[in-house]
Amino acid sequence: MLVGGPVWQTDVSVLTLTYVGDRPGATIFLSALTQLGGWPLLSLTTLIATFLILIRKSNNDAVLLVFIIISGRFAVELQKFLVSRHRPDALDQLVAVHSASFPSGHAANATITYLAVALLAARGRPIAMIAAFLLAGVIGISRVALGVHWPSDVAGGWAFGIVWTFGLFLLTQKHETQPLLQR
């Protein structure tokens, strides 16, 4: 059984504590911030990163980037369909939503996209990795504060995004093996 949602007191408490519905300024800011994890901006990010990778003549990396992101998106939608968790309804949802709650698509897809871009377009540079995790983090938090996701939806999205991206990335890397004992 999946833990979380309206029957899990931690989810209810965190959602209630972080909800910004009574603060118009925070609502406007977080509504704009959450768009960084929306499919239109993530698609644009993917296109730009793919173009930059192709300029470097790293065709395999460009294909891998697109594959990680698109396959991850489909995997997130499949999970939403299979789990079919209802979104929070005790508080007003401050942005429009039309799908199931678990996992958070914004959290998962932002994690997948920004992390894949950091790994493949920015070649794993530390500042790019930090930026990817920070972006995914604030996007996920915005979803809870706007009342459209349970905290466990966001945590599930982040976890899936990390495992999916690193898993596919590592599976495709060529590893040189060295003997355990050098002679």
Describe this structure in a few short sentences.
The mean pLDDT is 89. With 183 residues, this protein is mainly α.
**Residue-averaged pLDDT, rounded?**
89
Overall shape: it is: globular
Could you estimate the helical fraction of the residues in percent?
55-70%
Uncertain segments are none
The radius of gyration over CA amounts to 18 Å
Strand content: under 5%
Alpha-carbon distance between the two ends: 52 Å
- Secondary-structure-based class equals mainly alpha
Q: Give me the number of helical elements.
A: 7
Q: Tell me the series of helices and strands, N- to C-terminal.
A: HHHHHHH
Number of domains: 1
Features:
183 residues, mainly alpha, 7 helices
What is the strand and helix layout of this fold?
Layout lengths: L8 H10 L5 H11 L4 H17 L3 H25 L21 H16 L5 H20 L5 H21 L12
Helix pairs in contact: 2-6, 3-4, 3-5, 4-5, 4-7, 5-6, 5-7, 6-7
3D structure, described in words:
The chain has one domain. The chain is mainly alpha-helical and 183 residues long. The chain is globular, with a radius of gyration of 18 Å. It is built from seven helices and no strands. The longest helix has 25 residues, at 59-83. The chain is 66% helix and 0% strand.
